[in-house]
């Protein structure tokens, strides 16, 4: 038996965006406000410092600052997963220890980035993170950005440990998701990565999702989840289709995160622009951002009705 309450992790988990001020420095006030809003939506938790959180573009100290602020603000209300992936194992270990100190509910990491690593090397990296704390660990599998393809055998080896409670799969194969679910055993959680196939991932075995577009429309993903749980598959599919039209539009801007931040700014959450090399939206994008925001808000109203 995994010695953790796995229920804490099942559901919609928002990949939290990075918050910066005008100068591009970490903005803890802004992240607190955003986290507080998310806490009112009914989502299960937040994934801090991952792809959407731009953790890879921040220093270790900056990453600690943000996590600590989020923990203080909503750590008692939401499940907080700290992404501690980095290029250097020692940085990840330091971040994991800090995550434990501030009371995060779990740590998670991609394989170490930049170098082309063997499975033994990635295993050693993850193991060092796992051994650094008593927190549960969630593997982050995102081969399209890390270049590392997690095999079923390494997954099974990792999942055999009590502390390894799940994997977030951002690869687009739902078959792989199902295979990981089957390989991990009954107490092993699988998180859907591609938001475009939340319903498909859920239907084939995912216990929840961690997503980068949830942050601009958590209500819509909660709606799919609600329909799915109620067995209303046709309605769930309709919501997924509507969401996918929005995601296609979000992906048409200079960067996904630039677009998400521009949308949140319209709603009164100014979390700055993404850090370079991620591109911000320009003034020329503003009209389309406003239109997209209106479309999302209309659907949110419909979902609530
Ligand atoms: C590749 C990537 O970043 N995937 C994210 C997480 O798994 C997703 O949440 C996407 O941001 C989302 O599905 C939009 O394509
Ligand atoms: C999508 C996600 O999980 C991330 O931004 O890390």
UniProtKB/TrEMBL annotation:
What does the similarity note say?
Answer: Belongs to the DapA family.
Q: Which UniProt keywords apply?
A: Lyase
**EC number(s) on record?**
4.1.3.3
The organism that produces this protein has a lineage beginning with: Bacteria, Bacillati, Bacillota, Bacilli, Bacillales
Q: Does the keyword Protein transport apply?
A: no
Which InterPro entries has this protein been placed in?
A: Aldolase_TIM (IPR013785), DapA-like (IPR002220)
GO MF: N-acetylneuraminate lyase activity
| Pfam families linked to this entry | DHDPS
Record's SUPFAM superfamilies?
A: Aldolase
The keyword Lyase is assigned to this record: yes
Instruction: Quote the protein name from its UniProt record.
Output: N-acetylneuraminate lyase
